[in-house]
Structure formats: C-alpha cells, structure tokens
Amino acid sequence: EGLKFTDFYTTSPVCTPTRSSIMTGCYPRRIGLHQHVLFPSSLKGLNPDEITVAEVLKSQGYATAAIGKWHLGHHRPFLPTRQGFDYYYGIPYSNDMLTPTPDGRKGCVLLRNEELIEHPTDQTTLTERYTEESIRFIRANSRRPFFLYLPHNFPHVPLYVSERFKGRSAGGLFGDVVECIDWGCGEILRVLRELDIERNTLVIFTSDNGPDRHPAPPLRGTKGTTWEGGMRVPCIMRWPGRIPAGKVCTELATVMDFMPTFARLAGTKAPTDRVIDGKDITPLLSGQPEAKTPYEAFYYHTAQGRLAGVRAGRWKLHLEPPGAQTRPATRAAGAATRPAVGPLLFDLASDIGESVNLAAQHPDIVARLTDMCRRFDEEITRNSRPPGLVPKPAP
C-alpha cells in the first residue's frame, strides 16, 4: 500500500542517538547525543534549545503527541511536553531500564505528560495501550492537522505480550510481540479509513536500529555495529493518492530527513539559523525512477559516537573494523564477525553483505572517501551544539 525504501538509514546503531536525529534532523554528534544511550541515572537529554519536528509542525497549527518510548531524557526539561508535544504517554527510556519503587520492587515508569501514573509498569499490555492512546488522539484531532509520533517499546527486550496474543504466531514470544504490533498498526489504519482521513495522512513505518543479537541476511552485522545490518533499516511510507502503492525506492534516505520533509509538506521550512543535516526527500515520495537521493555522502557513527565510515553512491568505506564494535552479549550470541583490518571498502551495489573488501584494488577511492571523512569530521567538530544537562536533578 506504500513506498518501500531499500536504502534507508538510521544515524546510529543504537536508540538514543537515532531518536535525536528523528526529532531534530541532525546527526547525533551535531547535538551532543552521540555517545551511546541514556539511562535512568543520566543527566543529559535533548537540549530544549534545539528545534524539534514537533515544534516546527506545532507552529503550523498541528496537534502533536508522542506515545511510547522517548529515550531523549527523562528529566522534566527534556520530556516531550517541553519539546513541542501537546501530549505524552509512555516510558521515558528503554523497557529494560528498571528503577526501584518505594516498596522495594523494580520496574519501568509510565508517564502521562509529566506525571508518573504507573510504577512498575505492566508491560504485557503496553503495545495495546499505546495503540488505544494513539487512536484516542487521532479521533480527537481528526478535523485538524496532527502529528503522532508512536515509537513502540517492543520488540526491544525484555519481551512481553498480553494473553490475547500469546501463542498466536509460529515464532514464539518474539513472533507474538510482532503480531501485537501488527494488530496495532492495522487498528490505526482502520481508524484513518473510518474517519475518512487516510488520503490526507502520511504514515511511516521504520526502526531506530538493526536487529539485536542475530543478523538479518543478506545484511551483515547487528545492532551496535556500523555494518549495514546495524543501521540500514526497513522503511515504508504510505499516503493513498499521494504516494504510489507497491513501489520501491532504492535511493539513499535517512531518519534525519523527516524534519525537512515534514516541514515542506506542512508549508514551512526547517530551521535556517543552525545546521540541519537532513534533506527534503519529497521528490523521492513520487516513486519515479528519475528522483535521486539528495545526499552526496552519508556518514556512519559507532554506538559510542565515533566517526566510523562513509557511503558515497555505491561505495562504502569503514575506517575501523565493525566487528570490534559489537557488545559482549552480541558476540556471545555468535553475531560477531571475523577480525578485520581497516580500512574496508565495499561495493554495496554488488555486495550488500559487505563480504569482499576492495580496498587494495581501489586505493584512489579509499583516499577520496577518507578525505571526505576528514573534512566532515572537521566541519561537525566546528559546528556542534551541546546536549541539555541537568547538573542537580530534583529528587
């Protein structure tokens, strides 16, 4: 029913950095949220001085809601309600990050706007509750422009599912969790049809990083690495009457593009008083073969925020061996790759699995891409901005 992107990228192989890009249209390093993920003990968050996609759309009269996993700072100055969202319902970080309750139990916190409403959170019904909250928001705002950001917590581990979905799939608990998410997506699409607004609603389905522990062939690598399997993710865009159904786009696009693209669709522009790395990809939404990526190059960063490589056209250069980037648990599960010595050069047009290192055969390309990385590194170092910081959080 929509347009499938085959070369769609996150800006990090882990969640917090990528989510910062979704919100701001910037590389995480540009805004100081590039060094792994935030925890309940973290003092950092998305700087309130940043302009989010929600703030851009809100300025154009859109109702805005974030429902689900936030993971851009749980202190009040960093919460969605301080970043352009009219409404928030969800867990402010990952569902595996547990904090103690007054009676000695441990669990996730669930917020409504800025109020704690459940601790520990019953995660078995979380996907269904997110769906219900989303539908309630859509119904309440069906006669005005709205922006709904719905980042589900699952299938991030630990996995939970309600009784009605247990055993529904042939894929065990993971499959049941996916079935529940699929049901939720279907319910939202059903409501858009019921309200007769689906032809005026752009729906995007994507992810913030690659799969954990086990690769997804033909891509090599997993979450936590800069192999394609860590950062090239599914993306489908659906807009009946505006985006042709059943088409495939093979051009490079990224999560940074949501900000400038949504701004244009809403009749405005992305902020011009600061560097925005994302591109307006509305030409790609036509599904026409002559529409080309606006990117000369896309830069890969590790989960720790180091510049790790670049893709320019068909060529991808790794500055360091991605096998060394996997976490111990991932290596133990067999997802680690054989040792390699950088730089590594791959032709993604013929070798999407990054199996044949062509660096020795093309030293000129290695030199050109290495120089591109050097220049990018210098530029982003000069033009980066600090994250938000709460030095003494309120108890």
Short structural description:
The chain has 395 residues and is an alpha+beta fold. The protein is 23% helix and 16% strand.
Offer a few descriptive terms:
2 domains, five-stranded mixed β-sheet, Arylsulfatase, C-terminal domain, 395 residues
Descriptive overview:
The protein is α+β, with helices and mostly antiparallel strands. Helix 3 runs parallel beside helix 4. The radius of gyration is 21 Å and the shape is globular. It is built from 8 helices and 19 strands. Residues 326-338 have low confidence and may be disordered.
Topology:
Blueprint: E1 3-5, E2 8-9, H1 15-24, E3 44-45, H2 53-58, E4 63-67, E5 87-90, E6 99-100, E7 106-107, E8 110-112, E9 115-118, H3 126-140, E10 146-149, H4 172-194, E11 203-206, H5 228-231, E12 235-238, E13 247-249, E14 253-254, H6 258-265, E15 298-301, E16 307-312, E17 315-318, H7 328-332, E18 344-347, H8 363-382, E19 388-389
Parallel strand pairs: 1-13, 2-14, 4-5, 4-10
Antiparallel strand pairs: 1-12, 3-19, 5-8, 6-7, 8-9, 11-12, 15-16, 16-17, 17-18
Distance between the termini: 49 Å
Uncertain regions spanning at least 5 consecutive residues:
326-338
Strand order of the largest sheet: 9-8-5-4-10
**How do the SSEs run, as a string of H and E?**
EEHEHEEEEEEHEHEHEEEHEEEHEHE
Question: What percent strand?
Answer: 15-25%
Identify the CATH homologous superfamily of the largest domain.
Alkaline Phosphatase, subunit A
The number of domains is 2
CATH architecture of the largest domain: 3-Layer(aba) Sandwich
Count of DSSP-assigned helices:
8
